[in-house]
Amino acid sequence: MRCVIARFPFDLIMSEVTHKMDGVAPEPITSAAVGIGGVDYPVKQVGAVITRLDRRDFTEKEMIAALTRLGFTCRPAEAVAPVRPAVIDPWADMQ
Predict the structure, then answer these.
(1) Which has the closest alpha carbon to 63: 17, 22, 24?
(2) Model-wide pTM > 0.70
(3) Measuring CA to CA, which residue among 36, 31, 29 is closest to residue 50?
(4) Biggest alpha carbon distance in the chain?
(5) Do 26 and 36 form a contact (C-beta atoms < 8 A)?
(6) What are the 10-residue block averages of pLDDT along the chain, 95 residues in total?
(7) Measured between alpha carbons, how far is 43 from 68 in angstroms, rounded to an integer?
C-alpha cells in the first residue's frame, strides 16, 4: 500500500512492517501505541524503524493513519492518574 509520510512516498506491506519490527525492543509507551506481533510499540518508534526517518520529520497522526490502513490496531495512550505526593505534617512530632 502506498503511504505518504513526511511528504515521502512509501510502499508498505503489513508483513514487511511485522518483519522489520521483529526483535526490536519496545520503548516505554507515553503516547499512541500499535500492536505488532503481540507486542505494543509506540507509534513514533515504529515509524522511525520502518521509514528510517527522524521522528521529528513525521507526526503521530500520519503514522496512525498509515498503520491503520495496513490493518494494525492503534490505541491512544492510556490515561495515567497523576501521582500525589504524601503529605507530611512537620508538626506531628512536636506534640
Answers:
(1) 17
(2) yes
(3) 36
(4) 72
(5) no
(6) 91 94 92 92 95 94 94 79 59 65
(7) 11
